[in-house]
Structure prediction request, 261 residues.
Amino acid sequence: MELKTKIIAEDGKQDLIITREFDLPLNLLFKAYAEADIVEQWMGTKVIKLENKKHGSYQFETSDGKGNVVFRANGVIHDFIEDRKIIRTFEMENAPFGVQLELLEFEKLTDSTSKLHIHTIYQSVALRNQMLQLPFAQGINMAHNRLQDIANNLK
Amino acid sequence: MNLRRDVFQAISDPTRRAILLLVASQSLTAGAIASNFNTARPTVSKHLQILTECELIRQEQNGREIYYHINAKKMKEVADFIEPFRKMWDDRFNKLETIMKNYKDK
Prediction:
């Protein structure tokens, strides 16, 4: 079966591409990015601020059960064109990943299907690779932790 | 474990990555592979040896010639390196899809 979500991360490059086809009409896909209460649901983070407009900005925050903030991210909206595209920056606070430029394009496939194309540019190749390994660090997949150890030893 | 380390070492070299791209589309002899590079034939042979040792490519005798072809299963292990990252986004997007489908029903 073909994978729904695809990642293209070419070796030695400082960007990556994420594509995904949705069984949703274009306007609903875009809405999931445009409205704060919906973003909160699927991103699993609290949306402190989301000004989806040119020169707007946003702020996300996630707390653990005890109310300690475990994740905070922010960025500015460079461009926001309904049902077409969002260009914004993304920066995780108190994390060594630098700032990313995200170019999101929303495409209509049929009346009931759509496609999201995310092009993310990092400050360097090394930062991109660290970001790719982040899910390892979070321990989502124990089996892959070993693989990260091996990769780290290669550096 | 050593085998996996070798796989990542194997793909860290640009010539070896180019060889993998070449044999991904069709099986080729060492001579045919070498003709794509300006490097000396023994250098290409060395790269083929490393790729063969870590099982990214396989040799197959065809008459008097030895053909090299890609080992798709091993290549998948390399691709799995970014799998947790892909899975994280896949999970998020699945959630998005479910939420928006319900939204539509409202």
Remarks:
- DSSP finds four helices and eight strands in chain A.
- The helical segments of chain A are 26-34, 36-43, 125-137, 142-154.
- The CA atoms of residues 149 and 155 of chain A lie 10 Å apart.
- Chain A has a mean pLDDT of 84.
